[in-house]
Structures are given as C-alpha cells and as structure tokens.
Amino acid sequence: MDKLFKYLGGDRNIWMLAFMLGILSVVSVFSFIPILVKVKGMSYSYLFFKHLILLILGFGLMYVIHRVPSKIFSKLSKILFYVAIALLVLTMFMGESVNGADRWLKIPFLPFSFQTSDFAKLALIIYLARQLVKRKDQFNDFNTVFRYILLPVGLTMFLILPSNLSTAVLVGVIALVMMIIAKFPWKWIGFSGLAVTGLFSLLLLISSVAPEALPRVETWRSRIVKAFGDGENMDPTENMQANNALAAIKNGAIPKGPGRGVLKHYIPEAYADFYFAALIEEGGLPTAIVVIMLYMWLFFRFIKTGLGAENTFSTYMVIGIGIMMMSQVMVNMMVSTQLMPVTGQNMPLLSMGGTSAWFTCIAFGIVLGVSREQEKGEKKSKSTSNKNEINNELEDAIA
Q: Which of 7, 168, 291, 387 has its CA 20 to 30 A from that of 325?
C-alpha cells in the first residue's frame, strides 16, 4: 500500500478517502436504483456497469490531472472561464430538458450528456483564484474589480440561474468565501450583494408579467411553499419526494440493511438528490455518521493542502474546491431532511451522477496535484538542508 501511494504521489489521505467513497458508491448506488429500473425500463446490470465504468474513468482523470502543475491551471484560467461561459450560453439554446430545465448538453459522438454548470463552477473557481491574486493591488479600483471579478461571477450566476437556482446560489457562496479569504474589500462585497438581490427581484417582477421569460419561477415558489408552508393544509401527494425521504430516515432508526430499503422504491432520486435519505434507511445513523466524518476529514485535508500550498493561487483554488464539495454535501443532506426546499445536488463521489462524477474527480485531481507539489517542495528543501549540513561538516573537518 505504501508503494502504491508513493507511486501516486500527493496526499495519501485524500487518495484513501476518495477510494473509500468510490467503493461505497458502487455498492450503494446498485442498491438505490430500483425506481430508475422501473421508470426508465433499464436493467440493473446496465446501470451498475455504466456507473462503475464512469467512476473508473473518473479516477483515471483524477490521476492524470494530479500530474498537471498548478501553474498550468493558472495560465489556462481565462480560457477555461470563456469556454464555460460559451457552454452555458449554448446550453440555454440547445440544452436537453430534464425536469423542465435545460441543464444538459450532449457530448458529440458519445452517448453522454453533461451539466455545463458542473464545468462552470470549477472553471470559475480557477479563474477567480487567479484574478484575486493578480488584482490584489487593485482592489480599490472599482472598474478593475467590476470587470475582472464581480462581472464574471455575476455572469456565471445569471447564466446558470434560469435552469438551476440552487447551483447559481452555490456559485455565489463559493465566490463570496474565496473573496473573504483573499481580503476582498467589504464595500464591493456589499455592493455586489445588493446588485444581485436587485437584479433577481427585477427578474421575478418581469416573470410575473411575462412568465415565459423565467419559466422556473413557479417551480421555485412551489418548492419553497412545500418546504416551509403549512403542512396541515397541504395535500401530502404534493410533497411526496420530501415526505418519503423523511420517512426513509425514520425507518433508518432500525437499519434495514444493504438492499433491503423500502422507500427507495418511491423516492425518484434515491441514487442522487436524495442519496442521504436512502443511505440512512439501509445503513442507519451509524452509517450516516461515518459518511459525514469521511467528508469532514476530506474537507480538513483540502484546507490543510490549500494552506500549505506553495503559492497563493493554489491556496485560493483548493479552498474554493473544498467549499464547492462541502456545499453540495450539505445541500443533499438538508434536502433529504427537509431543512431546505427540494433541489438537485449530488453527494460528491457517492451519488450516481454520471459525467458529473468526472468533474468531481477532476477537482480532486487538482487538489492532489497541489499536495504533490507541496511534497516535492518539502523533499527538495530537506535535500538542500542535508547538503548544507554535509558541507558544513566537511568545512569543519578541513578547518
């Protein structure tokens, strides 16, 4: 095992946690797909091997990306961001409709589609990390700040918003945390917050007059009402997903065991958006605690890697990726426990996310690459120190 981790390079804790989550994903997703088999008419074996192959390819991407120097991502940050914006625009006009939202873009010549917002989140993190370092001495210049930081963040949120409100909000949260860490002026943070609130209110006003301008508004409203409205006066069938998720968690008081869950047959996204609920029904509270601890440990290693990075760009980038990962975990858990309205956020490396797992693996690969550079720097520093000690000893012997 030591030889394997030595060959791989990078933080062995992150590698080990990624492998553990991947193995748990293969086992649990196979157990959580009965409703997908029933609704889509697909076989268990097809869905299982599709998920397994995508995950294996994802780990291959993780290995390849972790060998790429972080300075390459810094140099490519603008290109990645421009590509992300182009893909988001393309998705608005040519995206495949899923649950009434155009979120998916078909990959040419391949039987796969992907959520362009997954790529956009990662591209924005890399771009923002670069700009926060490059423009640090210009933070008091509004024109520079607006052009290179605030406008790109706002544009990304605006293009994601029509199809996925929760992802747009998460993008804003990630950007906010990165700005705070970079000591970005609070006056610009406050300005951007007011601007986003004002623009969103304006969009809601426009949609009330022209519903076709923002067709998802009614969906957002109904989900908020279902989550926080008066349950006594509400038809239970209108909030069946969330109610079944809560019932699954309640059933988990006495764990059903792997493959023996009952309510996973009635939760439409038990293998993805409601993964946490299905996990508790079959594994109980102990399994849920173990999964939470795995993610907390992973987040700690991300933060440690970021703080120990050789340059500020890598620090911001890794911390941004850590916030992205934990925000998805928290949203999935909060949706499953009805602490927030129903929305679609996968559990990183656990949910059956298709190509979204690839972007998660790419993000993990970037963090592992930074930790690998850190290890090489420490070895080089240690080697230089040893050489200096030997030279000093030789000089003392000659003297």
A: 7
